[in-house]
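The step that takes the researchers longest sounds almost clerical: writing a folded protein down as plain text. The outcome of that step, for a single protein, is printed below.
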Amino acid sequence: MILRMRWACSSLAWTVVMMALCHEGGAFGPAALLLPGGLRWCSKPPLLSFRSKGLRPRGLGMTMSLANTTPNVPVDVRELESTTPPLPHRSTTSSGYRSETRTWPDFQYTSSAERRSCAVRLSRDIFERSLAEQEEAGLSLPETSDTLPALPLMKIVLIGGPCSGKGTIAPLLSQALRTRVVSVGQLLRGEVRSGTVRGAKVREVMERGELLQDDLVLDLVRQRVTDSWDAQQNGWQLVGFPRTPEQARAIASDDSEYGLKPDCVIVLQRPEELAKEFALGRMTDSATGKTFHPDYAPPPSDVAASGRLVWRSDDTTEVVARRIHEYNSNLQGILDEFEKEGVPVQLFDNARSECDTFADIIKYVEDLGRNKLDKEGGWEEVWRKRYGSGEGLSDLPDVDPLCDLMDVGAEDCLYNWSLDSDADRDSAAPTSPWLAAVRRCNTYSPRDFVPVLIGNYQVGWSSRTFVEELAPHLLLGRAVELVQLLDDKTERKVTQEDMLDIKGYGLAMRLAPLQNALQDRTDTLAALVQELVDEGIISKKSIRRELQDVRPISVGFLAGEAGEAQPPLLKLERGAMIHFGVPSYGIHVNGYVANPTTHRPEAIWIAQRSMSKATYPGMFDQVVAGGQPAGLSFLGNCAKECEEEASLPPHVVRALVSTGLISYKYTTRKGLSTKVLATFDIRMPQDLVPACGDGEVEDFRLWTIEEALLSVREQLPLWKPNSALVMIDFGMRHGFISPDDPGYAEISHLLRAGLCNDDLRSRF
């Protein structure tokens, strides 16, 4: 099975039990790094086949405790993991400690499927109640539930002692409310790994053995929250932070300079004896990252007998007692600071099934959210805040997923897809196993669209339906006009009698026909877009108040000196671009590990998107990917995203190699969407493990190239659509997909179909 190759540690949203958080409670320790991107520092690759090939991925392995803001000496976590359990004696069937005075009932963690079902059911209940309220308020509902707010933006602090269950509850909240999980430890590690100025300062302080200043940590958290579109749109969770009364005081007040005052503080409680049982019994599957416990999450028999289970050597009675003492000595002071500022604080018993605890927590958060709704002026004001602005560069609509992993699990998703695939498959006609991936991103008919021009340059395509809706504006001929393209590539204006008949071949629509200057064209189109919004033709919620450069399709995206040398033809509201079929751009980076002898790619890092993402949550993606902002070159954007998304060091980022463009077109309700992706390869050191620095990735996993391609073939619904294209392109470029394979020519064509010559007319 493909997923057996995963070793860079499991996503919190899907693991069996997340007791690893109890390690140290340190914000910079491996446990803290489970939020939300999975445990980053695993000691061993899972399979002997990797060892035989010389592939030994590992992390940097440093620890820091912010419980007393005293940095520790960086250590390699591999030294702390062993297949030999530490004292007190423990095994796969018995814990190192069992309390003689149990005050809690017996319980076990639920399965991943049961946990997901619990989160989906409770979040759907909130959604239905909110939907009824919004309909009653007379609001025009969004076209998809992905953008429908179930509650006002919620800001949550989630704290708890060692092994209190933070790592289990946080992803459930994220899945139910789409809140961004923010881990201070993860952010700090990302800064250090990426070699930023702040990261260098953190490393320098650590090396001097001095205290890490609260201002530095708080600035980092503030930047991550304010720079995250998900956090600004959907809310956030600070998990395991603040850790001291001083940090709580810095964020609790309304006039705090950090702007991080939460709506509530949730405290998870477990008896100290139960925390000791968890800490002194937990074990980790080094191949999957899942954490088990003999009593509360017993490992399956095959895992128990596999030899892959490891224990941490610092999970000792003395260390666990110290962690608990440090937490208890700070807790009351932290709560006092929040209560003084009127922040609601609620304690929840978590000595029981996590689904029972989560049900109580989500009810509490919903009640607070509805109180906040009343204070903020109702749903209409919440919608204004949510849809009135926002950058959302990487969250624009794209190809519909084959299933929603928020609603169904991966197994059910694949099963349903396999049934549909079997029903559609023509066994008499052999086809390429990868054609389904590229075909679903190229679903459109050129006859349904007309070219969009600025001057004599084509900049996009508009649907016939949209052109019909522009009839009043076409009759005026000021903001838009129709022209007839003749065989000799000359043109004539279309008469008023012809304007409403746009079914004939050769028609095109010109924008701002009376204007020649950039600003004049921009102003003309801005006025047109506003009228279309007022008329309900363009959805108000689509408006992002961000202008995008529009250039000839033949020129493509330009930035820096090249962009200054050839200014855009006009600047268009980003939310209106799809109506005019203007291409949008992005970048994808393939992070691969090469054979040390042949230097041929041998394995590739795959990211699993955060469950809090507005689009394609939980799906497979490249190690780095993102939208292309104006003002940055493709390479410059890659470097920035490599730092933020995967915490790659500068010397690795400098090895980025441009490998070309992938483009595709598909029909949407709004028009023709044309996507252009600049792809890059980056050879990763064998001992480097990517680490999520911005909370957008659940985890990273290392697969052989063959297994990654097999996943695209057999697990296509689990892939973000355009990421599957990039993986296929990588396989073709490096010879893993052969020209002798069925469908090779069609695959090659469809990977560039968005800008192919057979329907591209860039100059007339």
Remarks:
- The mean pLDDT is 78.
- The radius of gyration is 27 Å.
